[in-house]
Write a structure and sequence with these properties.
Nucleotidyltransferase, domain 5, globular, binds beta-L-fructofuranose, Rhamnulokinase family protein, ATPase_NBD
Length: 482
């Protein structure tokens, strides 16, 4: 039986509510509500305006209600969390992962635990913002001392909608607090950051029903008989679930604010090579592992445009100019941590170029060209290394998310890798969110036929590799990439 479903998909700069219809040979999605997600800087640091986000979700759900959805699922970015006291009250606004308070504490925790030992325990790439380091930075704070429960963003919103707590496992796998082998919370890692493991709620798998809307929520939205279903609540896990794969030999790049590039594997790889190359083993749907690396992504471009005071209407013109700018003049390693915080991106890129004896991008077109070529090189490096380390072959690269609209980036990723890139869907995260709900509500037994359905129902764009591969090889070497 086809199902009518609602996906709430929260990104770092905007949130969306979509309604969809998913059946064995039917997959349609419509956006019913979109809102800005603007972080707020307070004396205590950079925070998410979580009450405003919740308010917008309620608005979107009220718009979705007339379609009569069976189920609602929420996905969001990873690692950030809210703390609840014993009565369920939120203790302060969640911090944004781009807040800089974890910078030094992260390195200290890793040194104390031992980098290799920590990787054996949690299989996670080092990112200074991983939940465990945020918790270490909050040690001794009134909020943490008074907390009874720690909830990641989608779980917090699920709690507000239903009154039920839990920790969805794909997102829990990004915290650093989940054991990569047992897939249960790790008391050892919790102890290492001074976290009482009782704060960590019971794990739930994607597809588990969280509950019904609280009476107040039902009244506000009109969603009385709809269940709230746990999806792959980490947005990247949903995006990977939404990859329109038709065979097994694919790599993916989930490309938006971040580029998350890697492979879907049946089990984690926690070898020394994987650790040294900073690959993460996050959980996917149906027990899979997302073996991938974070690359700074279109953030480099978004933050440059913000600095220049340009809006998205100016993007096409900028890309046209970038296509005409001379190739491979200046390149940056798009995983360099200096690019993580908000701020003047063109200035930081210029500083990187000066330090590495490259020309400072002469104008905006040159800078955009530098960013996009560097990202293509980042995609290439991550996918090549992932394939080598996991001993897998990759024949097709699926590039999903907002980046799929960027024809230059898609073509250059294909050229740099020497592999075809299949671009789309742009809304893979919402698609994946709905596919998991569809599976949970009986549309299919596993993901494979649903992914084929994405392939059949979406306009995908295929980019064949061409151009001078040798030029990409030497460009990669210039910034120390594979
Ligand atoms: C992408 C993403 C990444 C995660 C980063 C921070 O939106 O979820 O997977 O590493 O945001 O949470």
């Amino acid at each position: 039986m086809p199902q009518t479903l609602t996906a709430v998909d929260l990104g770092a700069s905007s949130g969306r509510v979509l309604v969809g219809r998913v059946g064995r040979d039917e997959l349609r999605l419509t956006e019913v509500h979109r809102f800005a997600n603007d972080p707020v800087r307070l004396p205590s640091g950079l925070h998410w305006n979580i009450a405003a986000i919740y308010q917008e979700i309620l608005r979107g759900l009220a718009m979705a209600a007339s379609h009569g959805p069976t189920s609602v699922g929420i996905d969001a970015w990873a690692v950030d969390y809210g703390l609840l006291d014993a009565g369920g009250a939120l203790l302060g606004l969640p911090h944004h992962y781009r807040d800089d308070r974890t910078e030094t504490v992260a390195a200290t925790v890793v040194a104390e635990y031992g980098a290799a030992e920590l990787y054996r325990a949690n299989g996670l790439q080092f990112q200074p913002f991983n939940t465990m380091f945020q918790v270490a930075a909050a040690r001794g704070s009134v909020a943490l001392e008074g907390a009874a429960t720690l909830l990641l963003i989608p779980d917090l919103l699920g709690y507000w909608l239903t009154g039920n707590v839990g920790a969805e496992v794909t997102n829990a796998s990004t915290t650093g607090l989940l054991d990569v082998t047992t897939r249960q919370w790790s008391p050892q890692v919790a102890a290492a950051v001074g976290l009482n493991p009782d704060l960590l709620p019971a794990l739930r798998r994607p597809g588990a029903v969280i509950g019904r809307p609280r009476p107040e929520v039902a009244r506000a939205t009109g969603l009385e008989h709809t269940s709230v279903t746990a999806v792959a609540s980490h947005d990247t896990a949903s995006a990977v679930a939404g990859v329109p794969a038709v065979d097994g030999e694919f790599g993916y790049v989930s490309c938006g604010t971040w580029s998350l590039a890697g492979l879907e594997l049946p089990q984690p790889v926690t070898s020394e090579d994987a650790r040294a190359a900073n690959f993460t083993n996050e959980l996917g749907v149906d027990g899979t592992t997302r073996f991938l690396r974070n690359i700074m992504g279109l953030w480099l471009l978004q933050e440059s445009m913000r600095t220049w005071g340009l809006g998205s209407a100016e993007l096409p013109g900028l890309l046209e100019e970038a296509a005409k700018a001379p190739p491979f003049v200046s390149l940056v390693d798009p995983s360099d941590p200096r690019f993580l915080p908000p701020g003047d991106m063109p200035d930081r890129i210029a500083a990187y170029c000066r330090e590495t004896d490259q020309p400072v991008p002469a104008d905006r077109a040159a800078l955009v060209r530098c960013v996009l070529e560097s990202l293509a090189l980042g995609h290439r490096d991550a996918l090549r290394r992932a394939a080598a380390i996991a001993d897998r072959s990759v024949r097709t690269v699926h590039l999903v998310g907002g980046g799929a609209r960027n024809a230059l980036l898609c073509q250059w990723t294909a050229d740099a890798l020497g592999l075809p890139v299949v671009a789309g869907p742009v809304e893979a995260t919402a698609v994946g969110n709905m596919l998991v709900q569809a599976q949970a509500h009986g549309v299919a037994d596993d993901l494979a036929p649903l992914r084929r359905l994405v392939h059949e129902t979406h306009n995908l764009c295929r980019y064949e590799p061409h151009g001078d591969r040798g030029a990409w090889d030497s460009a990669a070497r210039r910034i120390g990439l594979e």
